[in-house]
Design a protein that fits this description.
- The chain is of the alpha/beta class and 266 residues long.
- 37% of the residues lie in helices and 15% in strands.
- It has nine helices and ten strands.
- The chain has helices at residues 3-9, 33-43, 87-100, 122-134, 147-156, 177-186, 200-208, 218-221, 226-246, and strands spanning 12-14, 17-19, 23-26, 47-51, 76-80, 106-109, 138-143, 160-163, 192-194, 213-216.
- It has a five-stranded parallel β-sheet.
- A hairpin with a 2-residue loop joins strand 1 (12-14) and strand 2 (17-19).
- Helix 2 (33-43) runs parallel beside helix 9 and helix 3 runs parallel beside helix 4 (122-134).
- The longest helix has 21 residues, at 226-246.
- It is globular and about 75 Å long.
Length: 266
């Protein structure tokens, strides 16, 4: 297959829809909506996640709305339940998003365990996922890097599983690459690293492990130059994906000459 054909066919499929970009970005922590717009454009992202409890998308009439700068016609908006600590609150938030976005059913579920670590509460996450799926939502779900939890969420019917690389906003990068690799190897739905990315190389590592995509917010919005960092993340995700498709050489303990000595003239 020609390279350009291979690249054209390498699409991210989520809930039956195809995307060219494998970088998903958030909309929080920017200086203003204009910076948000510029950074998201630089990222090349097609899926943009929105914290319904923290961002106005029409629920606060008379106030500036994110939809003024990010058109649902250009981006797939991914309402998320950031800030929810119970299944009940998460379900209520998703239902509100569906009303505000005219029946939109693709959501990102996260139910947190405590305010300090922001680790997921898996019991509440399972409960919320079951209710939302039964209610007709297509659920992309934030979880820890536990292969068993990831498999259970997939078996429940989640359309994508999103294990953390490290605590939300920490910028520590991928702390348990073998856990992520195990999740990827056993999954039949897209696996996207969510949380903990700090810089471009972290994104590349996630993609080189075989992840289908990466979602981030703080790593871009908290950078000294968010627009430039968004551009760097775009390139890193693309490079990591290409490297995974190409297949890296095996790691070896000793050197292996780049030029073979067999057949030399002297």
């Amino acid at each position: 297959m020609k390279q350009d054909t291979a690249e054209a066919d390498d699409l991210l499929m989520i809930a039956g829809r195809a995307y060219r970009s494998r970088l998903l970005v958030g909309t929080g922590k920017y200086r203003d909506f204009e910076e948000t717009r510029q950074a998201i454009e630089a990222s090349g992202a097609e899926i943009v996640t929105v914290a319904i409890r923290r961002t106005n998308i029409g629920q606060n009439a008379g106030e500036p709305s994110l939809l003024d700068v990010l058109s649902p016609g250009k981006y797939t908006l991914l309402p998320n339940t950031a800030g929810c600590y119970t299944a009940e609150d998460a379900v209520r938030t998703c239902r509100l998003a569906r009303e505000l976005l005219d029946g939109h059913d693709l959501v990102k579920l996260e139910v947190l365990g405590d305010e300090k670590t922001l680790f997921p509460d898996l019991v509440q996450t399972y409960e919320a996922a079951e209710t939302l799926i039964r209610d007709g939502f297509k659920v992309m779900v934030y979880t820890n890097d536990d292969p068993i939890a990831a498999r259970r969420l997939e078996d429940m019917g989640c359309v994508a599983v999103m294990p953390l690389a490290a605590p939300i906003g920490s910028g520590l990068g991928i702390r348990n690459p073998y856990n992520i690799l195990t999740i990827v190897e056993n999954a039949k739905v897209p696996i996207l690293v969510d949380a903990g990315v700090g810089t471009a190389s972290d994104s590349a590592v996630a993609m080189e492990l075989g992840c289908d995509g990466v979602l981030m917010n703080t790593a871009i919005a908290g950078a000294r130059n968010p627009v430039l960092m968004a551009s760097a993340m775009k390139k890193a995700v693309e490079a990591g994906r290409e490297a995974w498709l190409a297949g890296r050489i095996p790691r070896k303990r000793f050197a292996s000459a780049s030029s073979p000595i067999d057949g030399t003239f002297f």
